[in-house]
Amino acid sequence: MNAENLSKVGSRLVKRCGTRDPFSIARQLGIEVLFCEDFLAEHPMVCVDGSFFTVEGRVADEEGIRKQIYEMLRPHFTSGTARRATTLLETLRLEAYTPELPIQEDRIHVANGTLFLSGAFCTEKEFCRNRLPVNYDPTAPQPVTWLRFCLTCWNRRTF
């Protein structure tokens, strides 16, 4: 839900509930869930074991998400805004819940896509727990020094 839509919803709720807390009315009307659905449509993510993941990998700074929500709410409330942002973050955690991300042993997730062990490369990204922060470059030269080091560590038959 963008700020403009949130503003329209907030204005309607204030008119509707008068002096009562518009957030409690919104909660009764299921606006929390609608807010989270819109937020996830704009910022796709899943929640596994209580942690958020985007297609870029695990979200290290969940406070950043809470801050985004807070900034969306701030124009509409004069008190309790941080508490409301925290409540919406918890609702977002439930809306984005997925039991587990699949373990895919046939690919390596890199910053610019997915490299399959077959040698194929795809720029499309999917949710994963282990995206490496390096770009795959199919035209890069062989890492001669690294391969030489590996040969000194392991027998040629195992490498």
Helices and strands in order:
Blueprint: H1 3-17, H2 22-28, H3 31-42, E1 46-48, E2 51-54, E3 57-58, H4 62-73, H5 81-95, E4 107-110, E5 113-116, E6 121-122, H6 144-153
**Largest sheet: spatial strand order:** 1-2-3
CA gyration radius, whole angstroms: 23 Å
* Helical content class: 40-55%
Estimate the strand proportion. 5-15%
Terminal residue distance: 53 Å
Alpha plus pi helix count: 6
Helix and strand pattern: HHHEEEHHEEEH
Total number of strands: 6
List keywords for this structure.
159 residues, alpha+beta, 12% strand
Structure description:
With 159 residues, the chain is of the alpha+beta class. Helix content is 45%, strand content 12%. The chain is built from six helices and six strands; from the N terminus they run αααβββααβββα. The longest helix is centred in the first third of the chain and has 15 residues, at 3-17.
Question: Quick gist of this model?
Answer:
The protein is α+β, with helices and mostly antiparallel strands and 159 residues long.
